[in-house]
Amino acid sequence: MPDVNDPMLAPVELPPQVLINWQQAVGLVRSRSTSVASAQAQVAQAQAQARQALSSVLPTLVASGEVERNLLPLRVFNPATGGVQEINTTLWTGGVRLQQSLINLRSWHDIGTSRLQERAAAVDTENAERVALGALADTIVSVITAERVAEVNRVSLRSNLSTLDLTKKRTLLGAASAVDVLRAEQEVASSRASLVTGDEALRRAREALGMALGFPEAWGVAPDIQIDQLAADARSVCSPIQAPEQRSDVRSARMNVDASERNISSPSYGRAPSLDLVSNLNYTSAPQALRPVTWSVSAVLTVPIYDGGILGAERASNEAAAEIARQNLTQVERQARLEATQAQRSVQVAQSNFEVSRQARDIAAESARLSRIAFVHGTGTSFDLVESARRQREAEIDVTIKEFDIVRAQIAALLALSNCNI
Asked: Residue 287 — very low, low, confident or very high, per pLDDT cuts 50/70/90?
């Protein structure tokens, strides 16, 4: 086969960043993934809401002070002289108020609900990590697959350029016609189009990997990364489970149902009386005050009589929210079971497809070899040569994709029945 030189045979430009290993990828996802960070922020929000609910039954201490300056003289009775005395002075007052809830059924009930919501948010973070790892592994496999396809496209273009050069030489010797050259040129043009498409797919795959890692620019994959080792590396941060019902997204949805159903009865507790202990310590500098310092302790009983219907409307809203949570749980359970079933089956399907594709590739390669020999010896046509080369190129690309589909299916099967913690 004659040597050829073409500008399109040059490889795709290298990305600015290269992923070295799986551990580096997990670290970048942990620190830069927006989905994981959002889930962690939701946990912090749930914790703050739980602390807010707890504060309603804890004591509150409030201090206040006031300075009053009488701009007009203050007239007071002077018992010593028996007359009226005008005073133009500044008055100081201050106080401390302590309030402790003794009986507040709704607040105590809401504390338990907020704790359920906090645990559900924590479990939902685990699911966000599982999904992020799945997307990461898929993008890594996609980059490696796109690189292999781009390499196959260049090998195919080189082969077709060699065939074109050979056909032109045969034409000069009278062993081929202009139609044969035209067919070879058409196959070269088709290879160039496939190469351009494949290179763009590689760039987009690298950009998708960069986004999965938390960067706006493209990321490549180091050549020494073992694609077969990805599934084993994923097991280092993911623990297998026995049933889809144990998966983090199902458990989170179930906890949300429990919290929503508990929240239905919250407005009912709002109709119960509440009892607070209130203590006030006050000081005043008013000259007419018989005792500048006062201290009082009181029990305040609050009995709701009519609220305008707000509690009934709140209960109806909570019942609707609970029904939404139940329907979401049903959908998540169905989706988890379906994903687990399809993921397990997809491994076998991917392996079968790879075997079929490999056999088709071997047949196409042998057919292309025989067509080239026949064409060189004058017993074959240019159509047979071009067609066999096209089928060989398609078979090479197909077997490359099918090979990496096995790894992709294995990782999907692992994550479908796993809980991950990065």
From this structure: low
CATH of the domain at 167: 1.20.1600.10
Total domain count for the chain? 1
Look at residue 8 and tell me if it is in a domain: no
Three-class DSSP category at 208:
helix
95 domain residue, yes or no: no
Q: Is 228 exposed, middle or buried (0-12, 13-18, 19+ CB in 10 A)?
A: exposed
Within a domain: 25: yes
Kindly compute the dihedral angle of the four CA atoms of residues 214, 217, 223, 227, in this order, to the nearest 10 degrees: 40
Residue 360 belongs to some domain of the structure: yes
Residues 173 and 165: their CA atoms lie apart, in Å, by: 13
Reported pTM:
0.79
Residue whose C-alpha is closest to residue 169's, from 407, 327, 387, 376: 376
In our burial notation (b when 16+ CB lie closer than 10 A, e otherwise), range 288-309 reads eeeeeeeeeeeeeeeeeeeeee
The answer to whether the beta carbons of residues 326 and 263 sit under 8 Å apart is no
- Does the structure show a pLDDT above 80 at 303? yes
Range of the domain at 408: 17-56+104-271+307-420
Distances (CA, A) of 386 to 11, 120, 383: 24, 61, 5
pLDDT range class, residue 89, cuts 50, 70, 90: confident
C-alpha separations of 378 from 12, 170, 388 in Å: 38, 10, 16
Q: How many CB atoms lie within 10 A of CB 400?
A: 20
Name 214's Cβ contacts closer than 8 Å, sequence gap at least 6: 28, 29, 31, 32, 33, 34
